[in-house]
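pipeline/complex-builder :: batch 7 item 3
reading input block
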Amino acid sequence: MKICIFEDNTHLRESLQLLIDATAGFHCVGAFPNCKNLLEKFSDVSCDICLMDIGMPGISGIEATKIIKESYPEIQVLIQTVFSDDDNIFKAICAGASGYILKTSSPAEYIQAIKDVKSGGAPMSPSIASRVLQLFKLNFQPLTKEEYHLTDKEKLVLQQLVEGKSYKMIADELTISVETIKTHMKNIYAKLHVHSSTEAVSKALQERII
Amino acid sequence: MKICIFEDNTHLRESLQLLIDATAGFHCVGAFPNCKNLLEKFSDVSCDICLMDIGMPGISGIEATKIIKESYPEIQVLIQTVFSDDDNIFKAICAGASGYILKTSSPAEYIQAIKDVKSGGAPMSPSIASRVLQLFKLNFQPLTKEEYHLTDKEKLVLQQLVEGKSYKMIADELTISVETIKTHMKNIYAKLHVHSSTEAVSKALQERII
DNA sequence: TTTAATATCCCCCGTTTTCGGTATTGTGGC
DNA sequence: GCCACAATACCGAAAACGGGGGATATTAAA
């Protein structure tokens, strides 16, 4: 298990390096205080897992994660940071991080996290995992609280509208008259309390009633 | 720490009950094979954490989670199931689960998971955590790989359009002529490669270029 | 059985949008 | 100074849309 460390704090970086090299089966193949010439670092040494800090001077750990995953998607990046705010968590995950642990973690937790990553898991400090679930829920749940009682046909029409089709195209698609589409639209507008197709599409997408 | 168990397999249910009662500080206040009269169960006994199976006859564990969280949001629900498919994970999180562990977990892991929930964490089996991150990434990654080079004004207009406004309303809002809005729209259409306002709104929302 | 909801179609008419132009002004770069 | 580009504005015709009305058939619920 070859591990790379990115951490600007010299003391922590060296401690991590010692910890890793002292663990059976783990070997630290690099330890850097920043992400200068990032990709070059991987061109000569092979690496399985990166321990990545976020708050480094220059390129941030999140940017670095994105860059690494683009060129070496097989390298797993384990974020280790002091930041536990939603924005950093969000961005780190989207950048392709395989885990996210806080620096308050104990050495044993660090090692366990690396082992978890190795075996295909996604280690997260408890508070982080909790935030992730919260974020997940928040961003997906704004499911339509209100029930608009759209009929199947109306939903179909709305669906097509969301796909950018005109009344005529929808009519052709469903093999019914344009006039019928107009009637359906009138009903949809009334039920959604909107007055234009753009508003209907917007509401449909944002409240996931498609 | 008062714990309730929902699990239709008698053997597992009783094992869990034994395990919990044998653990210092934990007390099992109920163990049920299904969710009949679900809310009544909580009207007389207080409960901190529910261990919830998904695959029960009648009301599923996910439905039950939703119902419990509506009436007793302070009760934490820990899903324990054999299902590790995206759909169940997704729904469980949206229903308000505080954690999601597989039944293959060891007794020690069960206990640890309950402790994690108690301390505000979100325990997940490694493979589940990994799936959650995957789902997160898939659904949030700014899909907009392409850069559309919209100008600030164009983005503003598009933004207003997404809000359901007509050309005239946008013109008033930005205190410019409707004719200018028309010009902006033409440019937006060309840049986004769309041919109608609904398509533009749809693309703007789905690719998060608003 | 009456009623309500759904799905289908039609007409009319005014408004809005789309798309083809053209044109002026200001700004930043070369 | 010249050029590209953004932002502004206008014209006009064809197409699409929105809101109003009315109509019929089917089905499900009361």
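note: Chain B has a mean pLDDT of 93.
queue -> next item
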